[in-house]
Write a structure and sequence with these properties.
CATH superfamily of the largest domain: P-loop containing nucleotide triphosphate hydrolases
Shape: elongated
Strand content: 15-25%
Number of domains: 2
CATH class of the largest domain: Alpha Beta
Strand order of the largest sheet: 2-5-8-1-9
Helix content: 40-55%
Distance between the termini: 51 Å
Number of helices: 11
Order of helices and strands: HEHEHEEHEHEEEHEHHHHH
């Protein structure tokens, strides 16, 4: 079995293993930047499985999942989409931000995910494609407070009976995650940066701020420290300046928090 680099702080890998062994599809729920994609990639690697993935948005169409007809040199053919390819191959399928998709896309997906694990290629020959026995599906959703997300239909939600809640990790775990990407020369400043990120996350959770920083941003903060940027300047660049898009009052609130934590 391949070694993984994901720091499994809430037993997610064990839950995924049990779901995989019992062929139960998994839904991972959590805000952006909590490591959902890293978890899925490392789990696929641990299983030596081919991972197919699609990131859903309002622009995702049925054709991305099922396929499209093409005309080449006068010959009409059908290029199969990622869902059909994955079912035929028995690869691991990662449906990222599934609750950003339109209703018609979710309807076709639901057809493939029921207990029969099959779908009709009505766009092509009408063939019934049945998934291989080792086909496994993991989906992720962002909370409904995130822009562009919507509530999953109950019947689709039921296709994912194993659910993992992946929140931001505790501060002592987040520092360990960040140190996988940066040096440990600035540990005290890194700890302070993570405390700042958590302060902003908590404020966003109660709608006092418009934005919640992710793990990517605490990693970026550490990388700037490694390049000799001062802690306060790095904090303003990574955590502070983004709030200007919501106006000066929002920006000033965060700027004051940064000054209180890192000094003038």
């Amino acid at each position: 079995m391949s070694q993984t680099s994901y720091l499994d702080w809430n037993n997610s890998i064990d839950i995924l293993n049990k779901a995989y062994d019992t062929k139960l599809f998994v839904l991972i729920i959590g805000p952006k930047g909590t490591g959902k994609t890293s978890l899925v990639r490392d789990f696929a690697k641990s299983k030596n499985a081919k991972l197919e993935s699609i990131n859903f948005s309002l622009r995702t169409r049925e054709s991305h999942l099922i396929g499209t007809k093409t005309l080449t040199d006068g010959t009409v053919s059908f290029d199969e989409g990622i869902l059909i390819k994955s079912m035929r191959e028995g690869s691991m399928l990662y449906l990222d931000e599934i609750n950003s998709a339109e209703a018609d896309v979710l309807l076709r997906l639901d057809e493939a995910l029921d207990d029969r694990r099959q779908i009709s290629l009505k766009e092509s020959t009408g063939e019934i494609v049945k998934a291989k026995d080792d086909w496994f599906v993991i989906a992720t959703i962002n909370p409904l407070t995130h822009s562009g997300t919507k509530e999953l239909p109950p019947q689709l939600l039921s296709r994912f009976p194993v659910r993992i809640n992946l929140e931001y990790p505790p501060e002592n775990i987040e520092i360990e995650i960040v140190k996988k990407y940066v040096s440990d020369e600035h540990e005290l400043d890194l700890v302070q940066g993570i405390k700042l990120a958590n302060t902003l996350r908590q404020a966003a959770a109660v709608e006092e701020l418009f934005y919640s920083p992710s793990l990517r941003e605490t990693i970026a903060f550490g990388k700037l420290l490694d390049k000799g940027v001062s802690p306060k300047e790095a904090a303003m660049i990574v955590f502070g300046n983004v709030y200007t898009q919501w106006g000066n009052i929002e920006y000033q609130k965060v700027s004051d928090i940064i000054t209180s934590m890192f000094g003038n």
